[in-house]
Amino acid sequence: MVDELPSMTLKAIGIVRSATKQPTGQDGREIVSDIVIDSSLTEALDGLDGFSHIIVLYWMHQAMSGEVPLKVRPMGRQGIPLVGLFSTRSPNRPNPIGKATVKLLERQGNILRVEGLDAIDGTPVIDIKPYIPGYDSVADTKVPLWITSR
Amino acid sequence: MVDELPSMTLKAIGIVRSATKQPTGQDGREIVSDIVIDSSLTEALDGLDGFSHIIVLYWMHQAMSGEVPLKVRPMGRQGIPLVGLFSTRSPNRPNPIGKATVKLLERQGNILRVEGLDAIDGTPVIDIKPYIPGYDSVADTKVPLWITSR
User: Fold this and answer.
1) Average of pLDDT values for A110-124?
2) Which chain A residues are Cβ-neighbours of B11 within 8 angstroms?
3) Distance CA A118, CA A29 (A)
4) What sign for the dihedral angle of Cα A49, B95, A89, B39?
5) Backbone Cα Rg of chain A
6) How far is B106 from chain A (nearest CA, A)?
7) Touching check for A115 and chain B: CB below 8 Å?
8) Is there a contact between B33 and B106 (Cβ–Cβ < 8 Å)?
9) d(CA A12, CA B7)
């Protein structure tokens, strides 16, 4: 099956500007950072400030990619058994794409000021989407114990 | 700034198998489909069935990409003013990546059976992540009127 799977090319639409220069291992909930979008795409941001929250897809450029370990220890915690990579949010993934839901504090032209983006300075941004409750959220969920015991 | 923005290469990790062969324009909430993951990555799915819901990132291969219209009419509805592309979930984006939160019905080996995936048969899948309430969801949000009047 491997041979059938296609490759695609992404082009960054912008870059994260943040005081955070290295991964912190935290979820970055209180970090305020700027997303500087390619100025040729400024118009495509119109209306975004009608939303309180946005979804940011970004390329974790310092992570491993391609052939990565298939089993990992979530958040590096020794007390947790190894689980499959896709059961975790580990940055080391075949395609190292991060997805964060962040608060949109302000839009000025091609710059989005956001709160809660767990991405270091210089991270390429590949998409911005509005956060739509009900479509992006689930009311009734189940997660494993190792998630709830964080 | 355009010159500074990097390009990246993605490799699909799997393919959607669905009875839906063409885009429906619906949100696909009740569609049941299979995600067939590259069998060399099967082990990376271990533990995923501890989660009731997963996030699927996929490549909308029939959408426009690259240079796309920057202003669009959400869901093609004539009564809604043009808004910036990034304020919508239009598939026609510089990087046509879709993000869906779906119910994981069953995992069997390298096959994930899911409910609610708005992606047609043959869609390349580029990442699978667990849905983590509180990280992926927001309790208190604001959206524009055109979203709530859908």
Assistant:
1) 96
2) 5-7, 66, 94-95
3) 7
4) positive
5) 17
6) 14
7) no
8) no
9) 6
Tell me the Ramachandran region of residue B45: left when phi exceeds 0, alpha when psi lies from -120 to 50, beta otherwise. alpha
Which chain A residue's Cα is nearest to B99? A136
Does the CB of A48 have a partner CB in chain B at under 8 Å?
yes
| Token pair listed for A48 | 């975004």
What ipTM was estimated for this complex? 0.94
Cβ contacts of B56 on chain A, cutoff 8 Å: none
- B127 or A139, greater pLDDT: B127
Q: Is the pLDDT of residue A76 over 80?
A: no
Of A10, A83, A128, the CB nearest to B10: A10
Largest CA distance in chain A: 48
Read off the tokens for B67: 């240079």
Q: Is A50 on the interface with B (CB under 8 A)?
A: yes
What's the rounded Cα separation, in Å, for the pair B75 and B59?
Answer: 19
* Chain B nearest CA to A114, separation (Å): 14
Backbone angles phi, psi at A129, to 5 degrees: -130, 150
SS3 A33: strand
Asked if the Cβ–Cβ distance from B94 to A41 is below 8 Å, we say yes
Could you report the per-residue pLDDT of A59-68, keeping only the tens digit for each?
999 988 888 9
Q: Nearest to residue A123, comparing CAs of A34, A28, A49, A53?
A: A34
Q: Is residue B112 a contact partner of residue B120, using CB atoms and an 8 Å limit?
A: no
Question: In terms of Cα–Cα distance, which of A93, A135, A95, A100 is closest to A116?
Answer: A100
CB contact under 8 A, A55 and B2: no
For residue A98, give both structure tokens: 């991060």
